[in-house]
Amino acid sequence: ATLAAAETSPxxxxxxxxxxxxxxxxxxxxxxxxxxxxxVRGLSTFRNAQRPVLNNVSFSVRAGEIxxxxxxxDSGTRELCEVVAGLDSAVAGQVLVFDDDxxxxxxxxxxxLGVSFLISTxxxxxxxxxxxxxxxxxxxQYTNPAYRSHxxxxxxxxxxxxxxxxxxxxxxxxxxxxxxxxxxxxxxQKLLAAREFSNEPVLLVAxxxxxxxxxxxxxxxxxxxxxxxxxGTAILLVPTDWDEFAxxxxxxxxxxxxxxxxxxxxxxxxxxxxxxxxxxxxMSDEELEAVCFE
Length: 294
Hints:
With 294 residues, this protein is α/β, with parallel strands linked by helices.
């Protein structure tokens, strides 16, 4: 749309410019959940002997579903993601991917079953700044037989794959040979996304995946998450903010002081979750058991 210059005030022009430069709103179609991919049963972790972080947490996530987990910063959302991804241990309970018990498995063991993990602090965790962008993008391809020729690394194939991901994810750099330390926060997070999403995960654990990124990058990553969900990936999401929750969540789980206080099988928009987040309300055990698909 255009406005006649003579009929437009400077304030209107500025407002129009801001609107047109905003990242387009991400849209998703209705979820079509498939088989249960992740089953968490009776999961408990402790910060110390007296203070539980997660207390008897149970839920499931299905293929083609984004389950958003929300709660206060001390509710255990991050610890939950770390246990599922193999980054932390549990003192009780089970974590299963399909029928494989991954409770206590290493990160490598969890990844071998098709689990990827996207975290929110790329400059501190997940990106090795002293290594090249290509080495950060393709750590698993270096041991993949498909990237070897006559027993040696196929450097041209590795470079071609790195270049493809740099282009597809718009990672702003001079080339894959540059050290990852040169990347902005947004490009570092897109590097992580490229690495984790390109492995075709059966389960993605995403903790505040757009934190600290530009609006454009946030919209790009949200679009990629929806594409993964549409391709059948089960996604356990701790949203960065309520806009991200509204954009991505198909269903929702609320944690309060490490316990499940509410489950919404369908997120319609406009749900009031504050009473469950603040510990003022809790759904019945029967309502909460509805999230435990077999």
